[in-house]
Every structure is written in C-alpha cells, then in structure tokens.
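User: Structure with nicotinamide-adenine-dinucleotide, tokens only please.
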Amino acid sequence: MDQRFAGKTAIVTGAGRGIGRGVALRLAREGANVVIAEYNAESAEAVAAEIESLGVESMPYAIDISDAGRARRMVEDVAGRFGRIDILVNNAGVVQTKPMMDLTEADWDRIVNVNQRGTFFCLQAVAEQMLRQLPDSLKAAAGLADVVAVQLSADKESSKVEPTELEPSYGKIVNFSSIAGRRGRPLSTHYAATKAAIISITQSAALALAPYRINVNAVCPGIVVTPMWHEIDRDRAALFGAKEGEAVKAFVNTVPLKRAATEDEIAGVVAFLCSSDANYITGQAINVDGGFEMN
Ligand SMILES: NC(=O)c1ccc[n+]([C@@H]2O[C@H](COP(=O)([O-])OP(=O)(O)OC[C@H]3O[C@@H](n4cnc5c(N)ncnc54)[C@H](O)[C@@H]3O)[C@@H](O)[C@H]2O)c1
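Assistant:
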C-alpha cells in the first residue's frame, strides 16, 4: 500500500471499534502513527496493539471527547510524544433511537455533548496545535491574530489566479457527520441535529483555517453495520415489535446500491481527504452512502 502518511501523526477519536477503528487501521497501513482517542480504555489498548503490529507507532488515549479540558490535554500529550499533529479524524459519536415527543433533556444533552460539543472542542484544540506548527513565513504573512484581516488581505494581495506551484497543506481535519445530517429524523431528532451542526462547524472551521492552509471536511456515511447500527436495530425492533435484523434490511433496501458500506470504504474516503490529493478540497461534506442522498 502507498505510504501517503509516512511520518505523519493522526488522532482518530472513537477508534476503539467500528468505523473509527477502520480509519485508524487504514491510516496506519499507509504509514501514519495513530493515536486511538477512545472512551473505552480497553478497546483503545487493543486497537493500539493492532496498529503497532503494522510497524508504526500508536498511542491509546482514554478520553471522553465531551470534556474540552481533556481534549486540550490530549493535544499537549500527543504533541509532547510525537512532536506534531498532522491529521484529526473526529469520528466518535453516539446515537439514540427514541420518538421525538419522548426525548428528555438528559437524552438531548448526552447526544449533543458528545457529537457536537466534543467534535468542536477536539477540532479547536487540534487546530491550535496545527497553527503552532505553521512555518514562520506563513505565521507572519497570515498574522495569526486576525483571521478576518487575513481573508480581506488575501483578496487583494495573496490570491493566486494562476498557481505556479502546488501549495502544501498544514493540516487535515475530517469530521463525521451522517446522512442524518442531511434531513430530519423523527426517531433520532437530537442525533440528526448534531450531524447537521457538524456540517455547519465544518464549513465555519474551513473558512477560519483556510488562510493557514488547514483543510476541514466532513463525511456523511449512510449505513455501515457497526455496533452502533446493531444498537439502532435493537431499539427499532423494540419500538415496532419487529425482529432484530429487520431495520437494517429495510434500510439497506432503500439504498440505490442495495448494500451497506464496509468500514474500509468509509476509511478510504477519509484517507483521501487526509491526503495531498485533497489539498484543494475544504469545507465539503461528502456523502458515502451508496447513492442514498444526492445533495
Ligand atoms: N454506522 C453507521 O451506519 C453510521 C452512519 C452515519 C454516521 N456514522 C457516524 O460514524 C461515527 C462512527 O460510528 P460507528 O458506527 O463506528 O459507531 P460505534 O458506536 O460502533 O463506535 C463509536 C466509538 O466511539 C466511542 N465513543 C463514544 N462516545 C465517546 C466519547 N464521548 N469519547 C470518546 N469516544 C467515544 C465508542 O466507545 C466507540 O468505540 C459516528 O460519529 C457515527 O455517528 C455512523
């Protein structure tokens, strides 16, 4: 496999299982040292051991991403060990299947705190580190203190109508939204709201960080049969008095490609967005859903 990420340091949140584990393994196979930032300390250790067996370094890091202070400490610890952070994959998320009219404040806060707050504060903490890593020339030209001023001056002075050389990227951030972020979901209103918010956060961060050549994008997976989907399936079966497995089948039947995605199919798109092939892509939310959504 190409070693596109040789020597780079990546943090993948929620990488103890499911899609996050798939992303961590994919980045590691392509040469990255990968931090497994995960709520479940045991699964973080297990995935970190798998990663090390691929011949790169790994670091299991027990974290609840909704704790912004812990996210900042993680960034310090990772930068302390590896010297830099090149990639953040903000994958950790939680879901709940419950009719809208039954949602409680506690339900709302749990989902929003992890998915929306956690994603934002991990992004902010890692972006601060990426800004510290900028070459002095870009720091000086950009004037770190004032992003708006940079954007205005970029219009006048530093735009390159005909680029003569490829610009490097100084960091790649990929956030996990979902097709649930594309339209309402009466059985997971709070989850869908956080996934729509993640698209908005991705766009804002892409604009704020563009002057520093830090790319921020999102992926919107359709269905991947991970432990999260098993949970959704069980909850739907209980709600509708159906058999387990029926919700997954019914959903897959609505996907134009008529199948779920593999974890590696999502990981491949994330790896592309983290690679230099995607240096000119920022602020995008890419559906990886077998054709389910087309906007
Ligand atoms: N599976 C799908 O079909 C699907 C579809 C669309 C979007 N997504 C999104 O993809 C991402 C991964 O989904 P998955 O299916 O692999 O989920 P999963 O539940 O199988 O795995 C999520 C991982 O995140 C960890 N995690 C949960 N809360 C955390 C926290 N507060 N701090 C740190 N780690 C935490 C869990 O321990 C777990 O290891 C999620 O953001 C999810 O919303 C999944």
